[in-house]
Amino acid sequence: MEFTPARPRRASRLLASVLAAVVASAAPTGVVAQDAAQPAATTKKQADAVLIKIGYIRWDEPRVTLSLIDMPYPDDGYSGALLGIEDNNTTGKFTKQSFELVTKGVETAEAALAALDELAAAGISYVLLDLPTDVLLAVADAPAAKDRLLFNVSNKDERIREEDCRVNVVHIAPSYSMLADGLAQYLVWKKWSRWFLISGSLPQDKLWAEALKRAAGRFGAEIVEEREYTATDTARRTDTGHVQVQRQLPVFTQDAAEHDVVITADESEIFATYVPFRTWDAKPVAGSSGLKPSAWDPSHEQWGAYQMQNRFFDLNRRGMRERDINAWTAVRIVGEAATRAKSGEPSKIIEYINGPDLAIAAFKGQKLTIRNWNHQLRQPILLVDGRSTASVSPQEGFLHEKTELDTLGYDEPETKCSF
Amino acid sequence: MRKTRLALIAGVAATTALVGTVPASAYMIYVTNEKDNTMSVIDSNTLEVVKTVKTGQRPRGITISHDGKEIYVCASDDDTVEVFDAETLQVTHTLPSGPDPELFVLAPDGEHLYIANEDDNLVTIVDTKKHTMVNEVPVGVEPEGMAVSPDGKVIINTSETTNMAHFIDSETHEIFANVLVDARPRYAEFKADGSELWVSAEIGGTVHVIDPKTQEILKNIKFEIAGVSPEAIQPVGVKLTKDGKFGFVALGPSNRVAVIDATTYEVVDYLLVGQRVWQLAFTPDEKYLISTNGVSNDVSIIDVANKEVIKSITVGSYPWGVVVSPN
Question: What's the CATH code of the domain at A288?
Fold first, then answer.
């Protein structure tokens, strides 16, 4: 098949995307004002439009990734929320509702609680959260969080959906178990059911590894070998380069029991990126590297996602990532509820979101709804290799009496959540 | 084969209506193939592909001039509408469609094309004779479905993320009403007498019947298929018979076309077609309904009178849009 550039506009978009990625990684610059006293998104307000403000508290402690191209963008998440605001405002022209985003970057639990107080004082009833587990729970339990609705856009921890669930938190991000189940279904369909699991030794890596083990048990895969990568601290950027890694990884993966696939569980970005193409045996890799389960990927284009990627790129000159789609979805849920409830009244909007009728279209081939037992957004899981979307789970044949989406993660009979 | 069939049709026509000494001619069915940038041409008598034509990139929406001389194709990734001469199947010119045209509708007078620009929240109005852009109308997020009332006065656009049907005055190009519908409205179709507007909601899984005069929703048609998960029932293309008695709705990945009694709004049947059914078109005599099946790379031919699928025809890669010549 011959290739011709799709069109100049798109071609330049892609080039700009690459440049933007490099610029963002090399020299982070604040695209969206953090701790913004001013709303990050301002809109032409209609005189008689109802104003609906949405807050966003984001953990700004630096995150470092092994791969340079996975480094977080300075506007990570914020940009998705802003596109959601723009989309809501386009609809708002017809419904006389206008939307604004107020962002707060924080690095401590105290700052997060203070940010919540400020947002509450500004009359904001909906707050997106990108926070570690303990801070998220502290914010959800704060007096200022009462009668407000919080949206978890990044945290995958099972605990905040199960034994430590909170009625005022909607989880937009899929949990570890949903991601693990999505991956497991595909690997079992592929008949790669003998897994060699390599997990990191930090607490977050263990949580992810536990979810993967649970998934193996649920869908008929087997962990034939398990190893722990014990190094816990590593400089991701080094001048010395690849030579040691190239020698270490084959040795580390040597003499494992006969397996079909290597599964990496490395939330801490210590080793997983270095596993593909460096294993002792010639085996595919999945989990934290290789084939990854994800809520989104810049390569995803089915079900109208192509339009979403284009709109996002036009606004931000970079590819859209998981936090961006989760933030967009959260903002759209508020917008959708405001449209359907025909009201800007927080109690009515929150009632609609928590009610049985909320359904959101988010470019994943079917409507997304919220599990009423723990307020987790039901959603398909993309399986991506960094270049393309290899598949989307649930896989055909994994059946459920209510909805196949509930084959992913903890189902109603298993939940430990009670509101 | 073709000759005997023609003779038979001519014979029937002569004895029953005593008109037409010329045998009924074959209609041409044009199918856009989204993935391989082609258009398949099918003869409605032989039900075989007679020609495959190269198009611009990512061809989706397709329609034809009322005299059957010009075929219009949305080449989405080329940001243009290509105009093919129906005789020669050569591109004669392009129309300034605006970016990423997906679906469009031709005005009853044939002078204007109303085009949904999915990326830019616009409906573009193009003059088909002067080949110029007349106006752009800002609408909701991700405009998709397009329809025009039989009297030409009202243009309908559906926006997939805003979830509305926008009513646009074709004289002033102003939106005068917005109807909130279920999630991801994809297609809009008027009854031939203009009394009803049907709008399909892909993610909502419903078809709304709207009174165009009051803009009120008269009915939400729902679908249920034994053994098919509700999420897989995703209404896309809608067609209504000229007498207003039957509606046909393509149901996406459920691989079915629903047959609806358009007077009671009851679903009377589900016809199994190819995989991921997108769009539908009647032959002008309404003998056949054609469905494009995106995943199975074929079109299904439905016998309208008997409500049964009689044939599937392999076309290009990812068939999307379909239109039939008027003569």
Answer: 3.40.50.2300
d(CA A343, CA A11): 42
Residue A263 per-residue DSSP state: E
pLDDT in tens, A130-147: 999 999 999 999 999 999
A22 and A150 part of one domain: yes
The answer on A362 and A260 residing in a single domain is no
Alpha carbon of A297 to those of A17, A270, A321, A392, B24: distances in Å? 14, 22, 6, 12, 53
The verdict on a CB contact (< 8 Å) between B161 and A404 is no
Query: Does the beta carbon of A159 lie under 8 angstroms from any beta carbon of chain B?
Result: no
**Residue type at position A227:** R
- Reported ipTM: the value is 0.82
Cβ–Cβ below 8 Å for B161 and A9: no
Whether omega for the bond prior to residue B235 falls within 30 degrees of 0, making it cis, is no
Do A268 and A321 have their domain in common?
no
Taking the Cβ of residue A91 and every Cβ of chain B, the question of whether any pair is shorter than 8 Å is answered with yes
Q: What range does the domain containing A205 cover?
A: 177-293
Residue A85 lies in a domain: yes
What is the spatial distance between Cα A315 and Cα B120, in angstroms, rounded to a whole number? 12
- Would you say residue B7 has pLDDT above 70? no
Question: CA–CA separation, A20 vs A313, rounded Å?
Answer: 11
Count of Cβ atoms closer than 10 Å to residue B207 Cβ: 28
Is residue B236 within 8 A of residue B61, CB to CB? The reply is no
Across the interface, do B231 and A310 touch by the CB < 8 Å criterion? no
CB contact under 8 A, B164 and A91: yes
Q: Does A336 touch chain B (CB under 8 A)?
A: yes
Q: Within a domain: residue A114?
A: yes
